[in-house]
Amino acid sequence: MFKESLKLALGNIGRTKLRHLLTMCGIMIGTGAIVSMVSFTVGMRSEMSRTIESSGLLTTIYVWSSNSPLARMTEGGEDPDEVGARDSKRDPDEVEARDAARDPDEVVASDSAASDSLARGTASDLSAPATGGGTKITDELIDRIASIKGVKSAFPLVTFPTILNRSSKQAFAVVAGIPSSARDLIIKRLDKGEIFTGETDSTLLASASLARRLGINPDSIDIKSLRTGIPVTVTIVSLGGSSFSPLAVLGLGMPFERKSFHFRLKGVLKESFFGPIGRSDGYIPLDLAKGIASMTIQDPSDILRNPSLRSGGYLGAEVHVGNLNDIGSVTEKLRSMNLATFSIADQLKEMRTALVLVSAFLGAIGGVALFVGCLGIVNIMLISVLERTREIGIMKSVGARRRDILDLFVSEAALIGLAGGVLGVLLGWVVAEITNHAMFALIIKNEASFRRLYEIPFWLSAGAVGLAIAVSVLAGLYPARRAASLEPTAALRYE
Prior knowledge:
This protein has helices spanning 2-15, 17-55, 69-75, 80-88, 92-101, 104-115, 139-146, 183-189, 208-213, 223-228, 246-249, 286-295, 301-304, 327-336, 344-387, 389-397, 402-444, 458-484, 488-493, and strands at residues 60-65, 151-156, 159-166, 169-178, 190-193, 203-206, 230-239, 256-269, 273-275, 278-280, 282-285, 316-321, 339-343.
């Protein structure tokens, strides 16, 4: 009897094609809205996971002193601005007495560190190291970290801002140092070319976006030219000499000096990489980066700071574990050493949770359109019941049961939902594809190679079609029950 119900339902849909087509369009639009919106959050989550996994960030722990500005930012410590606002409300004599009790060098160092600008990602290894009660990040401490069970490699965070020149092209970038011993990490991030072989190798590995800004197309670059290296000049601004004079800062001979270093671009990274201290557009050997960073003016406070008072510590360190399961134990060990930590693995869980909430919100918006389509099903089915009242009466008079009439109308609603759901998935794919191309054409442009930012997995397609069928059946239940409850004699007399 179920097959007969399907045949009768298809026959009724065929008799009123336009009416049912418009109803299917309502379901199609609602389903398409859900698929297109959710597909972008699914795509973002997958792209984020792929990027982090391919770059090695998933097994990376960033480490810095527990009293550094970065520790306050990432672990909810006391913000220097909040301290200043609180002190402004206190009795000046109380604040003065508190500062007088502190060591003068500690006060100057902590105030300097609080004012350092972290937004640019120019985390100097020499400009604002940890002072006071925090553990200073030194080469000896990094060696101790590297010896912890589960740690694969550890090296200091050394970055500096620079202007890169190639022929007539010029680009601002933040360059980071990375040791050649971290070969596996570099290979993960490398797209084309070769890595440097030693700590004094004047090789630059540039991100794809930096290469474009230098007039190099990463997609069509000649591999032979990468092997020999493309000449690039790295230019920094430094203080001219180790002597310090307040009169020079006031304008009587500013002690600034431009210094240039010659490198060869031999590799292109997949993209710029972001960490808790900002973006890195390129890599050079760590020892070279240390030397250049020590001479670079990275913050306005560097102008006022006596170079002879610069302390030999690093802003932080980058620690890589061999296995994702070691993240927890290594993090606990680092924190027991009075160090602050930041792990992408921990943040990834929160980001995925946030994307799930965004998916639910966007899906609810698309669900509004689907609800409107359900109202269309209720409307068309009620009209169908009125038009087929005599037909229902004849069917009951020849032996059709209440369940048979119910199956007939529910089958009709399910067919509308099935057709609308399948068409909706196709519509969602078309909308997502057009939106994806529009984003790259109008917004992203040449900043990154084209890739699909959306993803429509099987579970999303099947779920969307199943949802369309389910809500259509629910919408058709009331008209179906109404049709099944008609008395044969009253239905036969209906005009």
